Please model this.
Amino acid sequence: MHRMSDRPARWTQATVYPDMWANPDDDPRESEGPGPEGELATLLDYLAGYRLTLRMKCEGLNAEQLARRSVPPSTMSLLGLVRHLVEVERDWNNWVDDSDPLPKLYGKRDADFEGAVAEQAVVDAAFADLEREQAATDAALARHPDLGEHLAMDDISVRSLMVHRIEEYARHCGHADLLRECVDGRVGQ
Model:
């Protein structure tokens, strides 16, 4: 069992700015030139950045580290966050479409966190599931480019759904920062 007294030393891979995850030249989230034009492009850019940040926080860890519940008694782990976001993407897809809702992929409430076990097959499946569900939600929303349009579920606007997606990933990237630091000491935004 991992105890808080076993805390790893804090470190960063960055050498340019000590509070960064990686040096700017090595950070795939960094781009040169002007930012995206328009509201939808800006929202999509922020969403892509947070999605990539979550993946970066998980890189280089084995199945045990990804499944480690680093802040007892919480059931949260990096793998649990990935699985949770799979379910969230699935739910958002249900908000876009008024057909029969897709069922939860991992089962009952909180099964996404509870089923995050230290097995490579579970890790591989979670990342494959995340890619698939993100693509499905992206495709569903691409059919609704008007940010002011109201969607089937709860009459939510596309704009509100996009902002909610960014908020969800941003919040969980904050969790991922703390979880990763507990796992191997690596820090940085």
